[in-house]
Predict the structure.
Amino acid sequence: MTRADDRLSWSDTTASTIGRLWGRYTKPLPSHVPGIKFLPFAPRKSLAGFLAATFTGMLICLGFWRNGSSGRWHLLDGHWSGLAVTSAVVGVGGAVVEALGRFLVVRQSRLS
């Protein structure tokens, strides 16, 4: 769980910073995840922020599997191609979760 928290917190910070600096020069994200209409992206999310979050998530995944696992990734059997694919999936996953915004937040009124 700690790695997921690290990935999301760093991805969110990077997406916000890069999105504010260069987001106006890139296209906005679509209104929802392509092919999945019930997962809407939050408004005002830019491609620049999404790519920054993806890249950050990839770096965190690479850092964990390289350093946190003592350089050995048993699941991937030590192949760099498997590590690259895994980091890409983790990076895009983190960026999608960051871009979903308030969709995943449980509203207080439902808890009362």
About this structure: DSSP finds four helices and two strands in the chain. Residues 2-105 form one domain.
